[in-house]
Amino acid sequence: MKPDICGDVHKNKSSKRICTQCKKKRTTKKYLMCSTCRATARKRHNRRYNELLSSGLCPSCGSKRHPEDGILCATCKRKQRVWLASKPRRINVIAEKQYDRRILDERHSLGVCTRCGRRRDNPKYIQCSRCRQHSKDLRVRRGQQ
C-alpha cells in the first residue's frame, strides 16, 4: 500500500500554520489558507457559481439541470438532503436563545455565576473566578486576546 504523500504534506503545512496555497505563514489557525488566498478562492468560487447558474447548469456539479429542479440538479439535491438529515437539527433557535437569556437573568438576579450557577467569589464580576479563567483561556486559544 502506497503512503499518502499529498495528505502528509497537507497535514504538515496545516500543523505549521503555513498556507496550503502560497506557502506563506498564516495568521490564524482557523483556516488552512491565508486571508489573501481565501479571498481569491472565494472570488473564483463565486464567479464559477454564477457562470454555471446563468448557463442553466447545476452550480455544484456542472451537469444539466431541469428548471423544475430549482438551483441544484436532482442528484445534488438528493445528496444535500442526505447531508442535512445527518446533521443535528435545531428546532427553534429563537426559543432557545430566549431560554438561555432567561436563565442568565435569573442567575444574575440571584447573585450567582451566570455560566455555571455557583456562588461568585467577587460580586463585581458576573462569573466566578473559575469560569472567568476558563473564558480567558478560551479567548487566548482562539487568538482573541
Radius of gyration: 24 Å
- Contiguous low-pLDDT stretches (5 residues minimum) are none
Number of helices, counting only DSSP H or I runs of 4 residues or more? 5
Helical percent range?
A: 40-55%
**Strand-and-helix sequence, N→C?**
HHHHH
Number of domains: 2
Strand content: under 5%
Helices, strands, pairings?
Elements lengths: L4 H11 L19 H20 L19 H13 L6 H18 L18 H14 L3
Please, could you describe this protein's structure?
The chain is mainly alpha-helical and 145 residues long. The chain is 52% helix and 0% strand. The longest helix is centred in the N-terminal third of the chain and has 20 residues, at 35-54. The model has no long low-confidence stretch (mean pLDDT 82).
In short:
By secondary structure, the protein is mostly helical. The chain folds into 2 domains: 5-86, no CATH class; 93-142, no CATH class.
Which labels suit this protein?
2 domains, mainly alpha, 52% helix, flat, 145 residues
